[in-house]
Amino acid sequence: MKFRFALLLSLSLATVVHAEDETAAETWTAKCKSCHGGDGKGQTQMGKKESVGDISLPSWQSTHSDAEIRQVIAEGSTKNRKMKAYKDKLSAQQIDALVAYVRTLKKG
Ligand code: HEC
């Protein structure tokens, strides 16, 4: 019985984690992809026009902390106003999930 409960618990936990991953991917597709691209390289029409950097680069990833990424998503960029503040549009949890999602875009 104990084992079964543990199994059930870990299965439902796995589902929760997976659901969060999916939500971040969906948020990215809905709100970020138009400028940053599905791969984070910024090779979209808007991305090219605004010279959006390639956030999949290991050199970008290693020089930006989670806190900095969270800040730019929540408050927007002071360098380019096209990167808007999302703190009124997204929950803190959604922003955290996006920070984690941005990390998954890293390409070696
Ligand atoms: C209308 C176009 C546009 C959309 C939509 C957009 N961004 Fe950006 N983003 C930009 C631009 C332009 C920059 C470059 C600003 C800069 O250099 O600071 C940027 C920069 C960034 C950076 C890097 C900042 C840095 O310090 O290098 C991150 C991370 C980022 N955006 C995440 C997101 C996320 C997450 C979303 C979706 C919630 C999003 N962006 C939606 C245009 C956009």
TrEMBL record:
Residues 19-106 form the Cytochrome c domain. It comes from the Bacteria. GO terms for molecular function: electron transfer activity; heme binding; iron ion binding. InterPro entries: Cyt_c-like_dom, Cyt_c-like_dom_sf, Cyt_C_IC. PROSITE patterns: CYTC (PS51007). The keyword Transport applies. Residues 1-19 form the signal peptide. Keywords: Electron transport, Heme, Iron, Metal-binding, Signal, Transport. Residues 35-55 are annotated as: Disordered. This is Cytochrome c family protein. The lineage of its organism: Bacteria, Pseudomonadati, Myxococcota, Myxococcia, Myxococcales.
